Amino acid sequence: MRSRRRRPLIVPVLLCALAVLVARPTSATGDADAPGGLSAEVVRLYEEASLATQQYETGRREAEVQRGRAQRLERLLTRERKDIAALHGDLGRIARAQYRSGGGLPHTAQMLLADSPEELMRGQRAVWQADLAVNNAVTKSRRAEARLAADEEKAASAWQVLERRNGELAEIKRGIEKKLEEAQWTLQGQADAAVAAGACRGAVRLDQPRTGFVQPWVAPVETYELSSGFGSGGDRWASRHTGQDFAVDIGTPVRSVGAGRVVKVSCGGAFGIEVVVKHAGGYYTQYAHLAAVTVEQGERVAAGQWVGQSGTTGNSTGPHLHFEVRLTPQLGSGVDPREWLAARGVRL
Predict the structure, then answer these.
(1) Among the listed residues 238, 331, 312, 305, the one whose alpha carbon sits nearest the alpha carbon of residue 273
(2) Residue 306 phi/psi, 5° resolution?
(3) How confident is the model over 12-39, as a mean pLDDT?
(4) Residue ranges of the alpha helices (H) in the chain?
């Protein structure tokens, strides 16, 4: 299995960027008449879904940091509550000591009960010290209680910010994914209709981003999981599996693995919508079960150039790309695609 790769993302103001993303028109049918039609709309929604996912991950990491802050505040609150309880205990002990030592007696009564001026002075010093200790303890207790109240407010605010951010990010992600799913299955419906009629709709011209491939060979899709492999058996095939399947969603851009010329674009049959490209050295590559094609027969393509969009047309149990490497354009001359690509520096 190949690990998924994501484009690097710098999001200077996360939530502002997300608000802009949501504000963009993303109707699955709103751009159907624009160049590329629904196919272009699916690609655009893929980009938005990818951006939303990366923003969601950025937000999730920020939320974890926020969670750590809130948990530190909770631990601080626990310590402060213990300190306040200790201060209250000190106040109780001081009050009891004052009561036992007569600290609560009026000054006149203390003079009448004193046996000598020295005893009176000692008593006054004790009272003064006790009063000072009480005042200090009360002041510390009040300050601690004020800090506790402020920190409790900070902790509550931190948790509220955390929950609100997570909710906003999740809602944005769900909204884009819903629009993408609707567009994908609308595209697949058009593809199924074309296959049933046995007439392809023609090439869809998409604005492919600049890739700058320097290597002559690439994988047929950028992000994927490998599923059924070459030569595997099962009830789905009359004989052994003739290619390598890539588990990808409907509408995923499919790339030519190398430079060559498109020798076949067809609809119908077990492979549904398919494209076959001839490469130097006499090998052919096939891209099958597509939802749309982006090239015409006879057209020359470069390594990494989009030739179609994945789907689930023909004899297919779910969205995926069926990829073959052949010695001839026809079925039955296949070689192991993984070994063939590995020999050219592409490891799946």
Answers:
(1) 312
(2) -65, 130
(3) 44
(4) 14-23, 37-101, 107-113, 117-197, 337-342
C-alpha distance from residue 12 to each of 59, 187, 216, 229, 230 (Å): 12, 35, 36, 43, 45
pLDDT score for 340: 97
Q: DSSP assignment, residue 28?
A: T
Q: Which of 68, 66, 53, 24 is nearest to 169 (CA)?
A: 53
Q: Which two tokens stand for residue 151?
A: 């920190």
**Residues 172, 175, 177, 180, CA torsion sign:** negative
Q: Which residue has the higher pLDDT, 247 or 105?
A: 247
CA dist 241 and 234 (Å) reads 8
Three-state DSSP class for residue 325: strand
Six-digit token string for 93:
């002990």
Please name the residue that has the structure tokens 């006879």. 298
Sign of CA dihedral 228, 230, 233, 235: positive
pTM of the model: 0.64
Q: Please report the pLDDT score of residue 199 as a whole number.
A: 82
Element (H, E) at 291: strand 284-293
CA distance 152 to 147: 8
What distance in Å separates the CA atoms of residue 275 and residue 272, rounded to the nearest whole number?
10
DSSP element (H, E) containing 269: none
Q: Are 284 and 209 in contact (CB under 8 A)?
A: no
CA-angle at 170, arms to 166 and 172, nearest 5°: 120
CA distance 180 to 164: 25
How would residue 188 be classed by pLDDT, with cut points 50, 70 and 90? very high
